[in-house]
TrEMBL record:
<dbReference type="InterPro" id="IPR036412">
    <property type="entry name" value="HAD-like_sf"/>
</dbReference>
<keyword id="KW-0378">Hydrolase</keyword>
<protein>
    <submittedName>
        <fullName>HAD family hydrolase</fullName>
    </submittedName>
</protein>
<dbReference type="InterPro" id="IPR023214">
    <property type="entry name" value="HAD_sf"/>
</dbReference>
<dbReference type="GO" id="GO:0016787">
    <property type="term" value="F:hydrolase activity"/>
</dbReference>
Length: 293
């Protein structure tokens, strides 16, 4: 990798970008993060998962309080963000959801599941336990084991499955259908995203995490978007008009940020994203180089 300029803030995905699996020890990535945090570089983890799946919910114990002041997390597909105070994660920029709103999202997800089964004969599973959204498993016969990110064969597998079941418009048509059903059920607009295996339906996306974290960073010292970089492994266009979850990090506020993809999967990416490949090792090498820069 060619030497890059020094960045003052780094936004990055966790699964597939920082770690190859959430079950592997986190020492490699935290060792690469620590000197940057010590130097005052803001590190911002943006992930669809929840805190207990980031270094087994113990990320904060790897860093002292000085380092924690430069660590931020935007998690659960826009549902929660954290900074750190007195050694503990503290939520910020979050709109709490009451049980009635959560149940409306659950009802919408079930309605999507039912429509796909009744009208198209497509079985799906639903994960209801995520804060603010539901995961709809479209590839129920396919398991990712411990690699909770887009796998190379999933896009083709899903496209074939949708054709077999006669679902019009491919994955784009399916996400549009999910939004229409959600509007019918809840009377409000929900957002449907997809990474091939899973479609996610909820009130927010990673876009909301990035916007909230970026606003929070401005409270800790002025930053320019050109001083920021964004790293992920799911920028690919999964289907026509449907982009991977990391593409949601490309918010207008960070239009001048540098963007990098560590995925080795071929496909179309947003124009501003530079494909590097190499998986998490590429990202860790970048962090180490920045610390030594």
């Amino acid at each position: 990798m060619k030497k890059m300029k020094r960045f003052q803030a780094i936004f990055f995905d966790w699964d597939g970008t920082a770690v190859v699996s959430r079950t592997v020890p986190a020492e490699d990535v935290v060792d690469a993060m620590r000197p940057l945090l010590e130097q005052g570089v803001r590190l911002c983890i943006i992930s669809g998962t929840t805190y207990e799946n980031i270094a087994s919910g113990k990320l904060h114990v790897f860093f002292d309080e000085k380092q924690q002041k430069n660590l931020f997390l935007g998690l659960a597909r826009g549902a929660v963000n954290y900074h750190f105070e007195e050694g503990r994660p503290v939520p910020f920029g979050v709109q709490s959801q009451d049980i009635s709103q959560i149940l409306r999202i659950h009802g919408a997800a079930y309605a999507v599941h039912r429509r796909l089964l009744e009208q198209y004969g497509l079985p799906t599973d639903i994960v209801f336990s995520r804060p603010g959204y539901c995961k709809i498993d479209l590839l129920v016969a396919h398991t990712r084991v411990d690699r909770m990110f887009l796998q190379p064969n999933e896009i083709a597998r899903l496209r074939n499955l949708l054709v077999e079941h006669g679902i019009p418009g491919g994955l784009h048509g399916l996400t549009e259908l999910a939004c229409e059903i959600a509007l019918e059920c809840t009377g409000e607009r929900l957002y449907a995203t997809a990474d091939a295996k899973y479609s996610e339906l909820g009130c927010h996306t990673k876009r909301d995490n990035v916007a909230a974290v970026w606003q929070e960073l401005q409270c800790h010292g002025k930053l320019e978007a050109s001083e920021v970089c964004i790293w992920g492994d799911e920028f690919l266009e999964v289907d026509s008009g449907v982009w991977g979850s990391d593409a949601a990090m490309l918010v207008p506020e960070l239009g001048k940020a540098s963007c990098f993809d560590v995925s080795d999967t071929d496909g179309i990416r947003p124009k501003r994203v530079r494909r590097l490949g190499g998986g998490p090792e590429t990202f860790l090498s970048f962090l180490r180089a920045q610390a030594n820069g």
